[in-house]
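User: Can you model how NAP sits in this protein?
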Amino acid sequence: MSLKGKLALVTGSGRGIGRATALKLASQGADVIVNFFRRRDAAEQTAKDIEALGVKAEVIRANVGDPAKLNEMFDMISDHFGYLDILINNAASGVGRSVMDVDVKAWDWTMNINARAFLLCAQRAARLMGGRGGKIVGISSLGSSFVLPTYAVVGVSKAALEALTRYLAIELAHEGICVNSVAASAVETEALKFYIKQGMISDTRQATPAGRMVIPEDVAKVVAFLCSEEALMIRGQTIIVDGGTSIAPFVIPEGDQQ
Amino acid sequence: MSVEEQVKEIVAKIVHVDKNLMTRESTFKDMKADSLDMVQALVAVEDRFDIEIPDEEAQKFQNFGDFISYVESRIAEKEKA
Ligand SMILES: NC(=O)c1ccc[n+]([C@@H]2O[C@H](COP(=O)([O-])OP(=O)(O)OC[C@H]3O[C@@H](n4cnc5c(N)ncnc54)[C@H](OP(=O)(O)O)[C@@H]3O)[C@@H](O)[C@H]2O)c1
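Assistant: Here's the modeled complex, given as structure tokens:
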């Protein structure tokens, strides 16, 4: 699957799943725009690693939760390149609180970054994809359909992202743009290690039927598949990448059986 | 208004504290600010002065004095450029 000559924007790609995805697309030949918000060093490292693969990388700082900043980023892409082939809506933030503790500030912050930004990025991206057969992939989590501790507002934002995936898929189909999402279970990243440390989620390493935890590269591979022509007839779907966890709540991992 | 006054005003508004109670020795913790308050305060200050305060730098601040000094140095750098 070659993406040679294609231009991809991966939001929040300095670290974690975004970084793995940016590197995967670059390894298939795509030039990549690395967007970040707070950690410039991480984004610049990702860009360096992308360039080492022989493709172009561009770093753009923008808080995607702020429409003015998001628009500046797209103006830059528009002026610099004038086109876009792939949008990976990966950036996410959130406030870990139970539902009764979610206030307006926490709700707006999370929804603006995780859900509204997907709408605004997709709108701007679609205009740059005209006639190029663009691909848009959102990154979701199991929290959209399952209840995870202190994950209420993030879970709701991911449910919005998945619903938006369906609307975008259908309404952009006539433009030749393919839209899907990938929902991951707990992925071994910095964010997850933080949640485990806070006791907000349990260490699921052993409980995954596939025998190990999902890593960022597992998600990146599925994202890359959705960006390929092989996946052309998958539209508006959210593909779950969880090593089987979500469909086996009652299965006790073999090692733990008495 | 000095940079110090402006930073205090922005932070006070986000964290909902009286800005007259804030000194250079105050910390976000003293103000009972959570992590969301802190990011929002940083972003508001960045936007006000059109500067960047990466997390790597922000993590080094011990108190508002450090924060304000950093903001002042970035503004000075910008003016030189
Ligand atoms: N980790 C998991 O277990 C897991 C599971 C399921 C789904 N997911 C989803 O996968 C995606 C990536 O998660 P991750 O675990 O890789 O996250 P991560 O390691 O915490 O990284 C988050 C990335 O998003 C960026 N970001 C955050 N807020 C932003 C904003 N307002 N504007 C632009 N960029 C912003 C960050 O930029 P800076 O580096 O500049 O801060 C960083 O690059 C998210 O959509 C998340 O919900 C994660």
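A couple of observations from the model: Residues 3-80 of chain B form a domain with the Non-ribosomal Peptide Synthetase Peptidyl Carrier Protein; Chain A fold (CATH 1.10.1200.10). Chain B touches chain A at residues 35-36, 39-40, 42-43, 52, 54-56, 58 (CB under 8 Å).
User: Helpful, thanks.
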